[in-house]
Amino acid sequence: MIAAMHHPISVPSLRRLPLYLRLLEAWRAEGREQVSCTHLADALGFDPTQVRKDLAAAGASGRPKVGYELKTLRDCLAGFLGWDNPGEAFLVGAGPLGQALLAYEGFAARGMSIVAVFDPDPGRVGGSVGGKPVLPLAKLANLAARMHVRLGVLAVPADAAAEAGRAMAEAGLQGIWNFAPVRLDLGPLVVVEHVDLAQSLAVLSHRLAELPQPSEIT
Amino acid sequence: MIAAMHHPISVPSLRRLPLYLRLLEAWRAEGREQVSCTHLADALGFDPTQVRKDLAAAGASGRPKVGYELKTLRDCLAGFLGWDNPGEAFLVGAGPLGQALLAYEGFAARGMSIVAVFDPDPGRVGGSVGGKPVLPLAKLANLAARMHVRLGVLAVPADAAAEAGRAMAEAGLQGIWNFAPVRLDLGPLVVVEHVDLAQSLAVLSHRLAELPQPSEIT
DNA sequence: TAGATTGTTAATCGATTAACAATC
DNA sequence: TAGATTGTTAATCGATTAACAATC
Hints:
2 copies of one chain form a homodimer. Chain A has helices at residues 11-29, 37-44, 48-57, 70-81, 96-103, 140-147, 158-170, 197-210, and strands at 34-35, 68-69, 87-92, 112-119, 128-129, 132-136, 151-154, 175-178, 191-194. Chain A has 218 residues and is α/β, with parallel strands linked by helices. Chain A has 2 domains: 11-81, Arc Repressor Mutant, subunit A; 87-199, NAD(P)-binding Rossmann-like Domain (Rossmann fold). A 7-stranded mixed β-sheet of chain A has the order 5-6-4-3-7-8-9. Chain A has a two-stranded antiparallel ribbon with strand order 1-2. At the A-B interface, helix 1, helix 5 and helix 8 of A face helix 1, helix 5 and helix 8 of B.
């Protein structure tokens, strides 16, 4: 079989796909059946050409004059992201952040469903969060293999992150969504996506500091 | 007074500053007193020139051969971000995510301290989270003015976000850290920084989907 | 047909990286 | 002095935007 060799999609494009997907699903609920790039671009404040390229990169195609068939496009994007059959994931870290992630129902529609909770802190093990028992890290490898789980969410404090990350990689998890403020280096076989709220807060802080402060006047 | 006109710092640079800051604080705790760009670059997997430019953009300067004085550099970055005297912030949304944000102590060191909690849902008002009473949105404007609060954290469900955002802007909040999956358009006087976990998850999902799946073999 | 929209190629823009002179 | 490091200018790279032909 000759596989068509497309460019790999860029990270910025990839990050925009969920925005399109969310709009498409909202519009579908309203009964709309066709969309054009201009509709999407206007709603998101993007350039229409950019939208067209993003959709093309995800494998979607439309028809000149008509646009894209909404349902087909939605399915194409969801399929491209692997979000149509949510993967099972393990949560490591049962603190407040872990609990919040567990409580958020939206992830099921985003390709991820948390099926078990672990914590390296013996003080947390044995308790339960969101109706799920908190298991010791020692059980991670065994369960990951038995359940064929590939995805892990890491939400432990910074000082426990490196070791927990290593344990997750050794357990065979291939993707780690890392909420700890620590860079994980787990080799090329493990994909790590880092979420760092401080980075986002820095943008806000600096912009706010630049804004004229009304209270400056006495 | 003639103000030197520097380029505005780029968003990518801005987002890297917290990473430097975190390292600097860790190294300072270890007693180190000098750092070079190469140290920082190596620890983060960045290009040394990029680090040098980032630091320069934040107003830091070092000495050839010696490097940067650690404490001075840390103070410079923290000052540039306005993180040395944390601003007081209101949290709008007392659900699981709001509670997790409230419980996270790290924000105080990142320029933000949550001082009151609001919720548009009457069912939540009157309760308390993290030891703080949940107040009705109607009290937002009055309190913001009295306490001179400029910053808000929006963590309500999607369908309540637009209205809550509007209320926050009307109350005079100038910066909104938006965790709702909704684009807020509140005019040029309000800085909105959007955090969308689905965007991050998309990157992970797609990379994971591209990885060879060991379970493919039967 | 005429007009709107896609798909694609070219131009622009901005961020990253490389090269190198200045400095302690 | 020699060597390491900063600061800055130039080159590269990649993403965004513009232009336009192809299409229904």
